[in-house]
Amino acid sequence: MPAILRAEGFALNPTKTRIQARHQAQTVTGTTVNRHVNLTRAAYDRLKSALHHLTTGRAPATPALLAHLSGRISWAEQLNPARAARLRASLASRSPPNSLNVVIKKT
Predict the structure, then answer these.
(1) Would you state the torsion angle of the CA atoms of residues 7, 9, 11, 12, taken in this order, to the nearest 10 degrees?
(2) DSSP one-letter code for 96
């Protein structure tokens, strides 16, 4: 592979290069890219935790927080729509009534 890179005019930076086995989480720019592009487990768990904090009252359901969580879920929807749909439903069920009219309205 280094010969192909050199032939195309690229240089390999050994400090940024990692060889990862098939069974390891292969990440690029914060996303897992093994079989298909997906959220990392840590990112998914943090998002799920933030939604749980809405239920328990640890986090107030402010419009800013709801917009932030909706944005993070939208990012997750681009990577894995099925998994993010569960998060979107969780946000809708855990938020106060009428607080999400503008925030999570899907077009």
Answers:
(1) -50
(2) P
Per DSSP, the three-state class of 34 is: coil
**Beta bridge partners of residue 31, listed in sequence order:** 28, 39
CA–CA separation, 32 and 7 (whole Å): 29
pLDDT band at 5; cut points 50, 70, 90: confident
Supply the pTM of this predicted model.
Answer: 0.69
Q: For residue 41, what are its two tokens?
A: 């487990």
Coil vs helix vs strand at 64: helix
Per DSSP, the three-state class of 41 is helix
How confident is the model over 76-106, as pLDDT tens digits? 999 999 989 999 998 888 766 655 554 455 5
Dihedral angle computed from the Cα positions of residues 8, 14, 20 and 26, in that order, rounded to the nearest 10 degrees: -70
